[in-house]
Amino acid sequence: MEPTRRTLTVFGVAVVLAVSVPLFAPPVVSLGAVLLVGWLIAQQLVAVRAFQASVSATTVTVEPSVSTAQAGTEIPVTVQVERPSTAAHTKTVVTVALPPAATAVPESKRTLTLTIGSTQARTVIPMSVPTAGRMRIPEPTWELRDAHGLFTESLTRGPSPTVTVDGQTVENIHVGRGGSALSAYGQHPADGTGDGLTPAELREYIGGDPADRIDWKATARLPDTYVREFEPESDREISLVFDHRSAVGTGTPTPQLAYLREVALGIVSNAESVGDPLGFVAVGDDGLTTIASPSSRQDAYTRIRGRLLAVQPTPAGEPSSTVELTHPEASRQLARQLADDDSRFGTILRTFADTTTAYIERIESDPLYGAIEYLTSTTANQLTIILTTDRDRTQLRETIKAAASGETAVLVFLTPDVLFDTTELTDIESAYRRYRDFETFRQDLEQHNGVVAYEVGPRDRLATLLSVGRDRSGTQQVPQGGSP
After folding, report:
1. What is the pLDDT of residues 110-156, one digit of tens each?
2. So what's the pLDDT on residue 155?
3. Which end of the chain has fewer surrounding CB within 10 Å, N or C?
4. Cα–Cα distance between 387 and 258 in angstroms, integer?
5. Alpha-carbon span 398 to 445, nearest angstrom
6. Using an 8 Å Cβ cutoff, are 409 and 382 in contact?
7. Are 317 and 246 in contact (CB under 8 A)?
């Protein structure tokens, strides 16, 4: 409890009277000072009881209109303060704060005042949150003042509801391979082979098989047409690696991250529906930003979903120079062999090897590569799912190679830069060539044992590019294993 300026004024008068006792009639002045101090003490006791009664009897409700909303939409929050007339002996001011991520609202629109004698007040706060995440509305702040305005009390008390704010919903989304859409990702059949994600065996094509199941590389090598079967998906431990570096923040009007998040949320929902233990690793420009060990607990899925909704691209840094090299391990061996060679030829090759070593170190210090190293050294998951962009293909190729080095199956969901480059689509022929180049890269990733790579992006832009290939070859997609 704090005294107000009025209290200090009354107390000051009492002090003046006490000091004036030697100058005036002592009994009168002394009695006045004592009466003032005693009255203040009595009023303080009355205020304490009034505050306690008011807090106990007053009900504050804070109710968002919805529990889940899209980022950037307005969420009306109804705030109501009620108390019985028997507890209406104090002035009560209740102020509701909004989550830090919310758009600012003037305090006057977030404050309710119950004057002495009043029993009810109500307001609606227009809350808007531009970023995704689980937002907690802080407990309301109270300020109480007694009937004489002598004492005040401040406290925090009341409900603290939460609202889940979803990221931008992506409706125009394509997930597939070689231009063919995947009907659903993360399916979980009970037995046999079929529409899972992990590659299994080849079999000859049977009339009626979907065209997108044809393995074009195998068909090109063998005399007949072959279809790739996939492993049935039963309970397995999954590690979800989500890239939110600055590179995935590109794309207009919807960034690549929004598409990757949409796929990741679908994977989380599927894992939750069948009870697969799910772990989560988020990767920013400076390294790992979130680590969650695999778990099949209900709250684990909820936490991962919340982290996905809240994640944003990390700020862009200075681009690093790259040194293209196809076989890093060969360069390691070359560096070791030239360690003691002082000939002119050896010196030249050693310079090349030193440059290569720097490249290798850069690959191994890459945050996404580091995430895979962390997973392979700390978990024994059966399936690693990586969601990233194709921006730095050299590093990504080495990362996928490292992820597929053991018994773990690897799924890669890639956002091709060409599908998010609006300027490139002004030159449709150039964009189509870039897409063909991406498709070659995607197929190269699938050459690693146990790796399946998917493309993720705007459906309409991909359709525009595929129309160029259709005009050229009469087909509706880029064949897997060849270029149209």
Report:
1. 999 999 999 999 999 999 887 667 788 999 999 999 988 888 999 99
2. 92
3. N
4. 11
5. 10
6. yes
7. yes
Task: State the DSSP code for 329.
Answer: H
Query: For 216, how many CA atoms within 13 A lie in the half-sphere containing its CB?
Result: 19
Determine contact, residues 180/211, Cβ cutoff 8 Å.
yes
d(CA 456, CA 443): 15
Q: What is the pTM of this model?
A: 0.55
Could you tell me if 58 and 90 are in contact, meaning their C-beta atoms sit under 8 angstroms apart?
no
Query: Which residue bears the tokens 């059966």?
Result: 382
Return d(Cα 90, Cα 46) in angstroms, integer.
11
The token duo for 32 is 């006045």
Domains of the chain in sequence order = 57-166 (2.60.40.10), 173-188+233-315+324-473 (3.40.50)
Radius of gyration, alpha carbons of the chain:
34
Q: Which two tokens stand for residue 205?
A: 């094509």
**Residues in the chain, how many?**
484
pLDDT tens-digit readout, 256-281: 998 999 899 889 989 988 889 999 99
